[in-house]
Amino acid sequence: MADVGGNSSGRSQERYVPSYEALTAPIPVVRDEDGTMVGTRVPRRFPVGDGEETVLVPRRDPDGSFPEPGQSPPEFTVAGGPAAGRTGPPAHRGSTRIRAAYSVAAAVVTAAAVVLTFVLFSGDEPDDSVRLPQADAATEPMRPQAAPTITLPGLPRVRALQPLPGTPSPVLGAMTDARAAITYVKLGKPWAVRAIPSFSVGQQVGAVRLPSTMAASGPLPGAAPATALKTGADFRKAALSAVRWTIRNHYPAGSKVTWTASQQPATGKGWTLGYRVTYQVKGRQHASQAALALLDVGRRKPAMLFVTVSDTNKQLWADIAPLVASARAL
Length: 330
Hints:
alpha+beta, Protein Transport Mog1p, Chain A, seven-stranded antiparallel beta sheet, 15 strands
């Protein structure tokens, strides 16, 4: 078989362009009419692999021929149009700037979306939301209310506790208060031994309500005196504070006091105060007779015996003086 345009091996004598210089695959070189070798390799303006490669294709002359070797091409087309002389930075820098611009734009759009969402939905509140009260800047912070001040009249110098009218109750025995270290008489019906708040031992008539009818004992309420009580004046002052405590805790609010007695106890050191308490219950005026005795029992806190009888049990007013007179230190 005759060799056509080649050697006996059948290979073409025309030079091949290496594959790494070809666009896709090795293509033989074509000779132009003037004998110049026209290859498929085209000039490149930028290195391959930057992702922004621009292929410059020489434009043919009007007669269809390519420019002569050594001549500068009159014009190149870039993406379908004439290419102006590029003087800026390489294309990969431009792509970095573009990506940075896209990132900034995306961040701005995201922030705008978040702000828009907050503006649209910030006014929506559930119907069952809990609204906390807001403090007025002009008002002062709330402070705990102090206990109402109990105003008592001035004490008489000395006045003996007098027996009051009524029917005295039978005496059944003695009440012993080990905590307060005193003893006093135990009365029969209608009196009954009851546990009374704020006291160690007590007797009571009727239901627990204000005003009540009771005889109860215990140590002096509150803190122990800063110094030991020694004189009658010391005990009288402590007894006055104890009466103020009974008005605050065992009578209706707004009660008023009138003194009926102020004397030393029959035996030992201490002080006894008698008083009448007036108050209103359901719009009606009422009164109770009461007496309070402090007894020295050899401790920093003296023992206290408190007796009060309301006008609903007026016949028992006669029990007040015997109860107080029977009190003794253990």
